[in-house]
Amino acid sequence: MSGRPDSGTGPETADSEAPAGQDASVDPRDGSVDPLAASDDPRDESVDLQDASDDPLAASDDPWEDARRARWTAVGTGAALTLAGLAAALLRLARSAPALVPAAYAGGAAVCAAAAVLGSRGRTRRALWLLIAGAMVMALGDQFD
Question: What is the reported pTM?
Answer without folding.
Answer: 0.57
